[in-house]
């Protein structure tokens, strides 16, 4: 009940590194077939080299900027070629966006954050839905939002705005697609251990003229469990949502954050 059925066909955006790669490998370990896309050629190359030595299902990949509609079309051509259909879309790709007061933000950085974090989720959902309607056991969309999609986040307005919007899209699509047996949920990670949060903490520390260690301590003081979330905890939630045990869950934004109290 707690594991997805083997053989699921899964697409993970931004899946060649970070949380996306952990999610992709978790699905592989559960017996799924997985295709990823990523904007980083270096990450794609590293993944391809690693997968060349695997004895089980290999993760296949497409180099693509998720904010480019033509690139998204190429991803789905590869998905059809590699997987022959789709059961699960994990809309994971995203960027941290700029750090700064609203009157200091560069317009291009605002637009880039909207393009990658929100518009791309629309581009992938619109292409995935016709394929998910054909999935024999019903389709699943998992959108990566953030704890910043349930809390205000001063000096990170572009990021928070997109992550709140992802929740609105999730709840709307759950209503729209439920009659087609497609479930739609969002995962809201908190402070996830890894290079991205290190960059975010460093940028905020620099802005406030604090050391990295002091800034990190302030971040963790706002988490009830007083620790960072791991990528594996996020991946486990994605697997659960695709398992028989999660088959009654749709339209939900599920925080995996150790209970972040405030940002």
UniProtKB/TrEMBL annotation:
A GO term, aspect molecular function: oxidoreductase activity, acting on the CH-OH group of donors, NAD or NADP as acceptor
Pfam families on file: adh_short_C2
Taxonomy, superkingdom: Bacteria
Keyword Oxidoreductase: yes
Keyword vocabulary terms for this entry: Oxidoreductase
Keyword Oxidoreductase: yes
Entry similarity comment: Belongs to the short-chain dehydrogenases/reductases (SDR) family.
Protein name as catalogued: Short-chain dehydrogenase/reductase SDR
Lineage: Bacteria, Pseudomonadati, Pseudomonadota, Betaproteobacteria, Burkholderiales
